[in-house]
Model the fold of this input.
Amino acid sequence: MESILLTVLGLLVGFKIAQAVYKRQIKLLYAQLEFYAKEKKKEQKPQSLLEDKLWHQQETEFIFKLHEYFVTTFERKKITRHIVERVANFLYVDKAILLLLDKEKNEFFIASSIGLDENTIDNFSLAYPQSVCGYAIEGGATIVVNNFDKEPYLKKINKEPYFKKSFMIAPVVFKGASYQKEIIGALIVCDKKSQRPFTEKEKEFLTNIARVSAVVIKNSQLNEQMQEDYIKTISALALALDARDPYTRWHSENVTKYSVEIAKAMGLNLSYVETVRRAALLHDIGKIGIPDRILLKEGKLTEEEYEQIKLHPVKGEHIISGLPFLKEVASLVRHHHECYDGTGYPDGISGKKIEVGAMILAVADSFDAMTSDRPYRKALPLDEAINQLKTNKGTQFSPVIVDCFLKVIENSPSILPSQKEHSG
Done:
């Protein structure tokens, strides 16, 4: 048990260190951008100082506002959306698209866009290095096209539906410490609303933003991978905890399966479904802090032992709350034993004060417990477990979530575990 606790502590410390490294990288990046802006100012010819002053001020302000935003979030979706929105507004274009490369499929996908209809986004498919975008990335430089009709070769190879009149494509390529290049994607703008041609200054601007985007998106991807690695590790600990007791061997997996299906059936957004999935995997992680003599006891628990068991939601919250990306998950873990009528634990909250995700976990957790063997009883038959859910609607469980889960069972009976899993 001590070794498991030390492992969890190591995870928390490791995440804090990695997060600090990420923030240092961002600060270094924008220090370089500030230096670049100052150098560009020195390079300006005297006769161009006045006419370029406004552009320079706007470009510098744009970069620093990007900096202010990027240090507030690690989420790739938010980052990519912010980039295309800001670029589209700054260059005053009809369309702005950020493509990212799926390295496993060797295909581009639209990470975020302005000005594209849903049908175009949903049906988009582009293998690398096909089409004009692949041509630009292979060339390693931003390309500017102000009259597509006068570019027969590009028109011939084009497979992208958004290229009509004029456009710029800036390769988004990350250059690592060893100077190896990694293709991240491409930043594209199409058709200025003013109908004017794209200028050299605008080309240089898009090139610089693509460089910034490469670093920020790469760090975001690394952060996502780091999060997933931590979740996998902690989940493995939770599954190992289940495996210590033959009666709970499949518990975390079953609770996760039920919880995700309920969340999807309720029409919750994909981000929250993922939060529920993580919370379900980790809902009993706090039992790491419960002594084996209590956790694995086959006889009836004493009142004092039961009070120890009731501490596991709070212990679970404490274990994972040190990871910022699991903050919402930690709250669901804390409240998964709350009751709809306020008689649960640890906080005794009720009704809408309980998070939807926690109420989902409560139903999924209880159902799996009822339909699995325990040292003190055999698994309940399916019909009896369903009757227990119905009987306790409005007291232990949210009526809405119980009804939703029963529909899930009715429509997808295959989600129920086999009899072998029932009996451990």
Summary: The two ends are 23 Å apart (CA to CA). The first helix runs from residue 2 to 43. Strands lie at 93-102, 107-114, 126-127, 143-145, 167-175, 181-192. The mean pLDDT is 85.
